[in-house]
């Protein structure tokens, strides 16, 4: 069934878009990620303009994250205070990201920057996660028991000033790395159309030592409000949010996230990290291939938004 997208200005198969939203929503609930790192490339590979893909996916991330947050909130698996600090920093980062997005759009360099950024970030983070998860699986199979986090056991992050107590996560840590992390996720989410959960979750676990029992729910809470701000800013500033495309993705994402949240409780942490690492690397490799392969059409008729004004 074909449906016309008014902002993207092209017809698409509605069931294909719905399936994309559902699949990525499932991954959102499973891994505690917004899913934009996968959905944005899927839309771009399907022919949706990168600017529209990035801006519209932020709204889908909101819907799938909201569904996942509800599931984790019912289980009491969210550190609300930590999520609130991350959220405030994320909204500030989103505002800066929209400004850069508009600038790149006017310069006609947005598509190239998006592709290069995906290759760099996904390749680096996916590689690190893959190595770590494989080592964890190898240690478990070898019978090694992972060392538990003991009270008073800290890294250099815990020596920074401006400390705040987060009772749900049993942390007493500086707000500096929390603000920087939240701001960076908000910035990247707005520019690249990613929820940032694939970066947020490892950072909370390995840098801040947040207990794994509250990591996914807290990550989803931050993603929910940060991407909601990004959607509003994109709709007002860049005007590239396609509401028809967004609604189809939202419906599929909400349904998929509920199944993913249930499935996530049945898999071990090292298995989840391995699967997520492979997904991140696969998307990064696809973007790298597209950058290296000579296109069939060497010329583009795309009009730079605002060029004639």
Automatic annotation (TrEMBL):
Transmembrane segments: 12-39, 82-101, 113-131, 171-194, 214-236, 243-261, 273-293
Subcellular location as annotated: Cell membrane; Membrane
Membrane topology, as annotated: Multi-pass membrane protein
Sorted UniProt keywords: Cell membrane, Membrane, Transmembrane, Transmembrane helix
InterPro entries (alphabetical): TM_pro_TauE-like (IPR002781), TSUP/Inactive_protease-like (IPR051598)
GO terms under cellular component: plasma membrane
Coiled-coil zones: none
Main localisation: membrane
Pfam family, one: TauE
Family of the protein in this entry: Belongs to the 4-toluene sulfonate uptake permease (TSUP) (TC 2.A.102) family.
Classification via PANTHER family: MEMBRANE TRANSPORTER PROTEIN MJ0441-RELATED, MEMBRANE TRANSPORTER PROTEIN YTNM-RELATED
Protein's name in the database: Probable membrane transporter protein
């Amino acid at each position: 069934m074909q449906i016309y997208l008014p902002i993207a200005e092209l017809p698409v198969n509605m069931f294909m878009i719905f399936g994309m939203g559902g699949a990525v929503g499932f991954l959102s609930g499973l891994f505690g990620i917004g899913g934009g790192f996968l959905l944005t490339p899927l839309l771009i590979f399907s022919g949706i303009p990168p600017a529209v893909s990035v801006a519209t996916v932020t709204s889908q991330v909101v819907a799938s994250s909201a569904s996942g947050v509800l599931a984790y909130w019912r289980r009491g698996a969210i550190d609300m205070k930590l999520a609130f600090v991350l959220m405030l920093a994320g909204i500030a980062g989103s505002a800066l990201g929209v400004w850069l997005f508009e600038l790149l759009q006017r310069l006609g360099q947005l598509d190239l920057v998006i592709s290069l950024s995906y290759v760099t970030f996904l390749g680096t983070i996916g590689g690190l996660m893959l190595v770590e998860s494989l080592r964890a699986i190898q240690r478990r199979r070898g019978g090694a028991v992972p060392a538990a986090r003991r009270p008073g056991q800290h890294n250099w992050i815990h020596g920074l000033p401006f400390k705040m107590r987060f009772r749900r996560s049993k942390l007493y840590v500086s707000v500096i790395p929390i603000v920087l992390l939240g701001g960076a996720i908000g910035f990247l989410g707005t520019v690249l159309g990613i929820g940032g959960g694939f970066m947020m979750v490892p950072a909370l676990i390995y840098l801040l030592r947040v207990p794994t029992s509250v990591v996914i729910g807290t990550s989803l809470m931050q993603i929910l409000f940060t991407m909601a701000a990004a959607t509003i800013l994109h709709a007002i500033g860049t005007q590239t949010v396609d509401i028809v495309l967004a609604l189809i993705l939202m419906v599929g994402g909400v349904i998929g996230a509920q199944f993913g949240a249930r499935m996530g409780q049945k898999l071990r942490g090292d298995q989840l990290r391995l699967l997520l690492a492979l997904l991140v690397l696969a998307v990064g490799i696809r973007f790298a291939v597209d950058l290296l392969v000579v296109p069939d059409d060497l010329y583009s008729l795309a009009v730079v938004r605002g060029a004639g004004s």
